[in-house]
Design a protein that fits this description.
Elements: H1 11-29, H2 40-48, H3 50-70, H4 75-115, H5 137-153, H6 155-168, H7 181-200, H8 203-212, H9 228-247, H10 254-268, H11 277-312, H12 314-343, H13 346-353, H14 357-391, H15 395-424, H16 428-464, H17 472-498, H18 501-530, H19 537-567, H20 571-575
């Protein structure tokens, strides 16, 4: 059950005793045989008395945990602490082998070859590698220090942890992954299977399961992604599996094991709801697929590199080192830029963690205004690039803009989801009063983006096919209009930034004049088409599409400005109305 704090009593002692015994078994009994100071007699005694050692450990740890519980010590935190230690030890034991195993094997091979006189290469046999490695202590200490420093300072290592915690979080927040066809299919199949089972289960059993699986009674610590029970299970089970795999000489991935344990417990813990399951399953598929792809690429790539080094010698080795360095620097720069983008969105996390609902709306207003200004800045630059690419017959500029628009579409969807999650934390009366304008502004942003996508698609196809460019008669009239539209975008950003209702009204009137001007330019095109100029017929249709979509963009911008102004109005303005009809937006 999610409501576990009132049910601990004697059960917590059994759980703590079992957890600590499991840690002792896997971390000590399974790993102790590989220690250098272990004698064969001691190993034999441990093997023959394993059951007795485990029984005594279980009894002792159970008593200790019960005493701690009576002393009002949170036993789950003790288990989490031990689990963290065991997981760290499991990671260290496994990753140390992965880190220094291959280079030390190479060094031993070289030393063995040199000690044999460096004679015939083809007749030399590496039989010495059949025995256990005798690694010098200074190698182990040095490698351990490098690992500690790397893990402490590596932001990529923290990103791995954030991904795991984000995908297993009990609460809904910013989803790190989008949806995929495979993820949607799996979710739909699971829902259909559950519905089939649910129709055939007895009502009594369903009531019992519903009481125990009521996630609304979850009791996570403040600011935690999930409760201590799941945290203890995640750490213990991952540590035990890694230690067991390492003791059996299995080349397992510590990250893979820890990640999949967390995903399994989060699935069982109902952390994946209807609104988040498709995103999280897509995330799991992406991570697992990435590991398998990495394995294949590493296998093939290693073979290619070895062949090139064998055929090319030292020059290829030097070139390979330079290429590796460049790729490493490039990867770090890209990761830093991506981390900077995530860091800029800290206001979203602040809103989710704010408990004062009245303060939430103030912060959400700031967040909405920032995102609106960012989108309008993007739209202004995109419109400028699209029209410039069309007028100047620049295919590369249109291709680059098309890619940026596709990326912005995902950004808008993510932003809308974040804002909706934030709106849930706003006081109900405020949310009702502001939700109409909130959704209207989001819809208008998406409408502007789709208009830009339509313009780009038509213009890109026209320019890629090397059709006739826009005639000078059209270009001379269109360029001033483009400047006016870009100026309106930039002035809208300033008006939203200054929260100036009068400036917003003035800009909306300018939008009306621009719409009228666009309509006049469209009539010019119709007249041109009536004259039957077959040579410029294709470009005329493209130009007409640009004018019509530009008119829709200005219309959507006008509505967006109105919604933005209404969102920034004080709540007292709405509460002065006595009739609900007054809250409905007027159609424009």
């Amino acid at each position: 059950t999610f409501e576990y704090k009132s049910r601990l009593k004697w059960k917590i002692a059994l759980f703590g005793g079992l957890a600590c015994t499991a840690i002792v078994y896997f971390m000590l009994l399974k790993g102790i045989k590989d220690l250098s100071f272990m004698t064969p007699e001691l190993k034999t005694w441990i093997d023959s008395n394993t059951a007795l050692i485990l029984l005594i450990s279980f009894a002792a740890f159970t008593v200790i945990m019960q005493i701690l519980h009576w002393c009002h010590v949170n036993v789950l935190k003790v288990v989490v602490l031990l689990g963290t230690f065991s997981l760290a030890m499991a990671f260290a034991g496994n990753d140390l082998v992965n880190f220094i195993g291959i280079p030390l094997t190479s060094l031993d091979s070289y030393n063995d070859y040199m000690s044999s006189g460096g004679g015939n290469l083809h007749g030399f046999m590496m039989d010495s590698l059949n025995s256990s490695a005798n690694t010098p202590l200074y190698f182990l200490v040095g490698a351990g220090m490098i690992m500690v420093v790397s893990l402490t300072t590596s932001k990529k290592a923290r990103q791995v942890t954030q991904t795991t915690v984000g995908l297993s979080s009990q609460s809904q927040g910013d989803e790190m992954f989008g949806s995929s066809r495979l993820g949607r299919s799996l979710v739909r199949g699971a829902i259909n299977t559950f519905s089939w089972i649910d129709d055939r289960l007895p009502q009594g059993l369903k009531r019992v399961m519903s009481r125990r699986l009521d996630s609304s009674k979850a009791q996570p610590e403040e600011g935690a992604a999930f409760d201590l029970v799941r945290g203890a299970v995640n750490l213990m089970l991952a540590g035990m599996l890694i230690a067991w795999g390492t003791s059996m000489k299995l080349p397992l991935s510590t990250t893979f094991v820890t990640f999949m344990v967390a995903m399994g417990t989060s699935l069982a813990d109902k952390a994946w709801g209807r609104e988040s399951a498709v995103f999280r399953i897509t995330g799991v598929i992406s991570v697992i697929g990435g590991w398998f792809i990495t394995a294949g690429v590493a296998f093939i790539g290693a073979g290619i590199v070895v062949c090139l080094m064998h055929l090319g010698g030292v020059p290829v080795m030097i070139a390979g080192g330079i290429i590796s360095l460049v790729l490493l620097v490039r990867s770090n720069i890209r990761f830093r830029n991506k981390a900077k983008e995530c860091k800029d969105d800290t206001l979203f996390q602040t809103i989710l963690n704010t408990t004062d609902r009245n303060e939430v709306w103030r912060l959400l207003r700031i967040y909405i205004n920032d995102k609106q200004k960012s989108f309008l800045q993007f739209a202004s630059e995109a419109y400028s690039d699209i029209t410039s690419g069309f007028v100047n017959d620049n295919a590369k500029l249109l291709s680059r803009t098309s890619k940026s628009l596709s990326t912005e579409k995902d950004v808008l969807k993510s932003t809308r989801r974040k804002m909706t999650l934030c709106l849930r934390n706003v006081a109900p009366d405020t949310a009702i009063e502001k939700s109409t304008w909130f959704h209207l502004s989001n819809n208008m942003e998406m409408a502007i983006l789709y208009n830009l996508l339509h313009i780009t698609e038509v213009c890109k196809e026209h320019v890629d096919n090397n059709f006739r460019p826009l005639p000078d008669s059209f270009r001379d009239r269109f360029n001033p209009l483009c400047k006016q539209i870009i100026e309106v975008f930039n002035d809208s950003i300033a008006a939203i930034d200054n929260d100036d209702p009068e400036a917003i009204d003035r800009i909306r009137r300018r939008c009306d004049r621009i719409k009228d001007e666009l309509s006049l330019r469209s009539k010019d095109v119709y007249l041109h088409l009536r004259e039957g100029d077959a040579a410029n017929l294709t470009v005329a249709y493209v130009y007409l599409n640009v004018l019509q979509e530009s008119r829709e963009i200005i219309s959507s911008l006008r509505k967006l400005l109105r919604a933005s102004g209404k969102l920034n109005l004080p709540l007292a303005y709405y509460r002065s109305f006595t009739h609900p009809e007054a809250l409905e937006p007027q159609r424009s």
